[in-house]
């Protein structure tokens, strides 16, 4: 069974009341909620309510309270002005996306220097009830705002593992390190699924996503060590940003390192990008990681990177993400 953070339960909000006018209204507010059979708990100068009751609270506060001195939070996050709670309510659609498992796995080929497919990266796409696609940045923004990254990351990871059984090649799967509390607990379902599908652990490469900066390196190491113990491999993305020192990279020992597309596109004619690409390559070789250049769209960039010594390549030049894997 997944942990509580991976279950999409109704949110509960802590409402903080400041100043005498608001504090004096707590008994009235409690009575108002109880007469409507709405859950409300009082703790000092705070009340706790369910998300389904938030609009009732907003309506009440507009008439009888000082809104400027009302604050909210959920899941022990920072306190925010009550006016901002509307943003959380507006993102509730992400709960339904996760409940319905409205996810489709796409794959993009990763090729070697001879343009032979070496692996695939699995990319998650999401759909509305009418079947139309939702942009990934919308989905992850909504999930982050409502504390659903844990549940969403698990959904994406499990779908990608299932899809890898169809690919039957090395498969790169993104994951968010901060969505994993304990590797032994949070990742056991991933391991169990891979085993049940008869997937060779060596086929799966778990990739630290570039959009999530990792502050707790020790926690990341514990996750990667768990993957390694189970026979999986792992890749680091956006290395120049999150993992700047050679000592840190040696400590983590990635199997693959990805050069970000911002240094790839146009590299054949840009001396500054060439310097960065060469430094990156040297760093990858130093830690015995396979260097991979992503975001390649022109043959000129591909040829330059290949001559430079890069071993793996990914980008529209070799294939766009698609439901049916390119063979």
Automatic annotation (TrEMBL):
<protein>
    <submittedName>
        <fullName>EAL domain-containing protein</fullName>
    </submittedName>
</protein>
<feature type="domain" description="EAL">
    <location>
        <begin position="87"/>
        <end position="327"/>
    </location>
</feature>
<dbReference type="InterPro" id="IPR050706">
    <property type="entry name" value="Cyclic-di-GMP_PDE-like"/>
</dbReference>
<dbReference type="Pfam" id="PF00563">
    <property type="entry name" value="EAL"/>
</dbReference>
<dbReference type="InterPro" id="IPR001633">
    <property type="entry name" value="EAL_dom"/>
</dbReference>
<dbReference type="InterPro" id="IPR035919">
    <property type="entry name" value="EAL_sf"/>
</dbReference>
